[in-house]
Design a protein that fits this description.
Elements lengths: L1 H18 L34 H12 L4 H4 L8 E4 L6 E2 L2 H11 L20 H11 L15 H13 L19 H8 L6 H17 L5 E4 L2 E4 L3 E2 L1 H12 L3 E9 H8 L9 E4 L1 E4 L2 E6 L13 H10 L20 E4 L5 H6 L3 E6 L3 H9 L5 E5 L19 E2 L5 E2 L18
Helix pairs in contact: 4-8, 5-6, 6-7, 8-10
Catalytic activity: O-phospho-D-serine + H2O = D-serine + phosphate; O-phospho-L-serine + H2O = L-serine + phosphate
Pfam family, one: HAD
Family: Belongs to the HAD-like hydrolase superfamily. SerB family.
Length: about 425
């Protein structure tokens, strides 16, 4: 009888060992295929192509930080882990700010500025640019009324040149006197050109432009004035899946963008991100209509979500950091666990992420220097999911001229210890 009891006990213990795995090492993530009767973290779609082991790295992040497993859900007072994405060329291919600006010009929605003075549209517009715009667009249209840019190619060309090239059609600089790490005046100007319209009207314009650009075949160009410009946009399936999976795993997912806030809000609905989780360039209002004045950040009235301005906007809007400290890097336990971006405008807020930083390679020097240096192992690089760029033939000049300084000059990129990052080869393409 004793031998039978011992045998039964051994069988029960063996069965328990099969069902209940031993304790994982401290800090280890659940295996990517982990399942349990009580539930498991959602899986990224294995049918979608990622570079190398990037999908596995992202899944490990979700498993480690998500609130999807019973043990993680049960921690009293545990806040949702924060994930922040850039928008243009990160979640979508091409630029929704461009698409909306092009639509405005094709449909006579840019209004004659206050007092017919283009200097009222941006504090950084140069006298040469203001004069060129006045000559091209004239003064016959009353202030606040639509300029006929659908047919007046001279006016459309001048506005497009200032916006897209940062210069007049004659080649004179269009903007000057700004902090190059806190604002990009041409991005801000796209929002400032919305002045005089209501937020509801702008959302309607953005929705119409969105429909046109999603309907157009990849590679489509459209004509604005006398120029041909990009005329199509696509959501990246991989990013759509990643955002959906992060949401299901209990992450707090946000967008930060240097495009106009109402425009990005329209596009973000498609991936399940509400208007209250979109940070963009934000116009101040008067009488229910947008004005050319923008909401600044951290005590700087001209700062927009751009490079260091993105950190400021995240600190202010998501973390509740007071203005006098909003440009400062916050303690690790408060910062985003995950961040994704594609350009130098994203370098600071990606650097702030404490878990993983996903970079789509568009050959942007400062960002790629940090990503390839990968000082703490938390950077992962992926080619663009559509029309990836070829490899650069020369290394990124990290040690001398890859970081833009506030005055616009270029200098070396430094790591967290203050050491110069050496030049980096382009290896993911």
């Amino acid at each position: 009888m004793r031998h039978r009891t011992t045998a039964i006990l051994a069988l029960l213990l063996a069965a328990a060992a099969t069902v209940l795995p031993g304790p994982a090492p401290a800090g280890a993530a659940p295996p990517s295929g982990a399942r349990s009767a009580a539930g498991a973290c959602p899986r990224l779609d294995a049918r979608l192509t990622w570079y190398g082991n990037n999908r596995e790295r992202l899944q490990e992040l979700i498993d480690r930080h998500g609130r999807c497993l019973p043990a993680q859900r049960g921690i009293p007072g545990k806040s949702k882990p924060l994930a922040v994405f850039d928008w243009d060329n990160t979640v979508v291919k091409n630029d929704v700010g461009d698409a909306t600006t092009f639509w405005l010009l094709r449909n006579d929605k840019v209004l004659q500025p206050t007092r017919k003075d283009w200097r009222t549209t941006s504090p950084f517009l140069t006298p040469d640019a203001a004069a060129a715009l006045r000559r091209a667009c004239g003064t016959a249209v009353p202030a606040g009324r639509p300029l006929p840019t659908s047919g007046d190619t001279r006016c459309a060309d001048e506005i497009l040149s200032v916006y897209s090239d940062g210069a007049t059609t004659a080649g004179a600089p269009a903007f000057a006197g700004y902090d190059h790490r806190r604002t990009e005046p041409s991005y801000a100007w796209a929002a400032q050109l919305l002045a005089g319209h209501t937020p509801r009207q702008v959302r309607g314009y953005a929705a119409t432009a969105r429909a046109e650009n999603l309907r157009a075949a990849p590679g489509t160009q459209q004509r604005v004035g006398t120029r041909k410009v990009t005329g199509w946009i696509r959501y990246y399936d991989q990013q759509r899946d990643l955002i959906r999976t992060l949401h299901r795993a209990g992450f707090d997912v946000w967008i930060t963008s240097a495009s106009a806030q109402p425009v990005v809000q329209v596009w973000a609905r498609e991936v399940g991100i509400g208007a209250d989780h979109v940070i963009g360039v934000e116009n101040l209002r008067s009488g229910g209509r947008l004005t050319p004045r923008l909401r600044g950040c951290g005590g700087d009235p001209e700062a927009i979500p751009y490079i260091d301005g993105k950190r400021c906007a995240i600190n202010r809007t998501i973390l509740g950091v007071p203005p006098h400290r909003a440009f400062e890097r916050q303690p690790a336990h408060r910062r985003q666990v995950f961040a994704a971006g594609d350009s130098d405008t994203d370098a600071t807020f990606l650097h702030d992420a404490t878990g993983l930083r996903l970079v789509l390679n568009r050959n942007k020097a400062e960002l790629m220097c940090r990503a390839y240096h990968n000082g703490d192992g938390g950077w992962i690089v992926n080619p663009m999911f559509l029309e990836p760029k070829p490899a650069l033939s020369t290394p990124y000049p990290c040690a001398e001229r890859a970081r833009v300084n506030p005055d616009g000059s270029l200098g070396p990129v430094l790591d967290d210890r203050g050491a110069v990052i050496p030049d980096q080869r382009d290896t993911v393409f």
